[in-house]
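Board notes (copied after class):
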Amino acid sequence: MSIAATPLTLAGRRFLGQWWTVTALLTLMALAAAVAAAPLVAAALGTDAQTVDLFGRFAPPSPAHPLGTDDLGRDVLLRLLEGGRASLLVGLLAALGSAVIGSVVGLAAGYFGGRPDAVLMRLTDGLLALPLLPLLIVLAALDPAKLGLPDAFVFSDFAGLARIVVIVSLFGWTTVARLVRAEALRLREETFVLAARAQGAGAGRIMTVHILPNLASSIIVATTLAAGNVILLEAVLSFLGLGIQPPTPSWGNLLTNAQELVWSAPSLAIWPGLLILMTVITLNIVGDGLREALDPRATNR
């Protein structure tokens, strides 16, 4: 078979044939590049996201402050870029954590079946029955200092980010688990799996070498779609004061700080809101595009 006819190449062609998906991907890449370049932007402007200038409060856009300043005279552009680093990192890490847990649970349930499948799926159904947002609010309100964690970690800038990632990962894997289980139930009866079992391959090798690679496309799509939901959850928790805590900026706590200034300085609320909206929409579009491109039954448009 020629290289041009491989399934991966055909999937790439289908993906590139969707102009809206390519546009969303390029937008997402540009946003990620801008967020990653925050230190370079700060060096070019000669300031940083934490510098307070009470004499320059609510300054309009200027060459020194392209998007103006906030109520403490801090540069709005740098605050948005630093907040994007936190929000995107939380979305990526929590989505990956959920994908790993869900893949392990779903793969074990689908391959072994029987009692392990019943136990794992009842656990999954129990978590699905719980209202996710109220549960996350309750868990995020717990004081980490009372859990015996070191003070150096509890009061660090990384603590709030790590807490959101752990909480979402532990309770957000159910969708991936059900998806992987359904595919694993089908794949375990395929000829190549039966042949590997006849040759004496163990369950671990069959699951990791023969079944898991065939689940990669479904897991990638589910992870991409989950990342947008995680960013929304982080924004909600930070907006309620239970997520990433100041002075570390995130798009959610930037909205919290701007809610009392929405009439006097509406741009402070508009910018983080637009960035959250744009990120979630582009992630969903890319996820849908990947699903169509990786579907072997899709027609080559």
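Comment from the instructor: The longest helix spans residues 76-112. The mean pLDDT is 83.
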